[in-house]
Amino acid sequence: MDIEKTASEIVTNVGGKENIADVSHCFTRLRFVLRDVAKADKKTVEQIEGVIQVVIAGGQFQVVLGSKVTKVFKALKPMLGEEALKEEGHVSRGSFLQTGLQTIAKVFTPLIPAIAASGLIKGLLTAAKLLAARNGVDISTNDTYVLLFAASQIIFYFMPVFLGYTAAKALRCNEIVAMTIGGFLCYPNIDAIIQDTATVTRIFGIPVVKGAWTIGDATRVFSYTESVIPILLAVLVLKYLERLLNRIIPQLVQIILVPGLSLILMVPLTLCLLGPVGIWVGNAIQALYHVLMNLNAGVGGAVIGGLWGVFVIFGAHRALLPVGLNDVAVSGRQNLLAFAGAANFSQGGAALGVMLRTKDKELKGVAASAVVSAVLVGITEPAIYGCNLRLKKPMLCAVLCGAVGGGIMGLGGVFGDSFANNGVLTIFTYAAFGLKPFLFYLAGCITAFFGAAVLTYLTGWEQKEE
User: What CATH architecture is 3-94?
Assistant: First the structure.
């Protein structure tokens, strides 16, 4: 495959450089924001070598490329220029919801590789700890274990710093100032001040808001380390504060006064208003999710396990990522991606059913690679677009079996101690809370995978669709 040629043909057939307002990418897709979608030739783009599918959703023209997406994206940069990639103030034509989904995708997608790496390390450490415990050995104080565990925690502990950067980039304000605000929230002295609820702390005479909350059996005090929403609110306000300061401060001294005054103003604003509001909003989201899961975790797991693949088609699954990340920050555990794991395995299973049944060599090859991608690392776009959605019935089989698998996990009280794409490589993330929930997790994955494979093989699909 000629990467340069593919990138050039994509640019030409989405309406040319002048029609591209913005472009980003996730694990498998180029996500174009076009000035005029009508100028893009969807059918022609789908015929370009390396392109699996084109999806128009969430105000974006999404070109699904699979594992080649990073190389194609790099090839696009010199063709488009930085001005096309960073156009100031452009928003796509579409609803407020579409714009919000685009922004969420830009904020959280860059963090996913590091989050996935964290989940992999944590899963391997959990597996090693369980194996060692069977032999009467506690490795939790071993130097290697301690250092690797610390590496797995970094992305979560300093989440405000990382989110400060990605949010500022998405909202087009100063990334370094935003990271500084995030680092301030994680600074040990600040963390100690916030958690000392017995002492009144003031800044410019204004009391810093502190407090504690209880969700379920857990009681925690305010802490901005690992938090998600406070820094997002802070960066949102920073965006407009910078605009205001740039208007009223002479250009000659903007380079010093704008970031300086931004920090001086954002520190009290964050500690006294935005941070606490962010904590309370995060707690409310987590409490609501907690209530829903307590009402009927089996139904909740079935809904997410069944519909996650559908969310992926429209890119709407990105909107749920803050819920899972916030869950880890607030309670140290999450089950959202456990249920999504049932969907991942079911998509891989449906692709396996296609591979075993089809006589078309090209489709068999596409399905085989899709199985590996979905099952090993939890990336399902190749399975969804490469065969399941194209053939329709396999997609229905995957949705049904994903719901069954997610329901099993919900009934078994499955939780993970990290946030990572679900696949074989991260499977031990869900062993951290005991053998019983881990066995339910395995049962859900196995049911989803083999159920979808068998059901797809038996029901088949219309040959003309193939």
Answer: 2-Layer Sandwich (3.30)
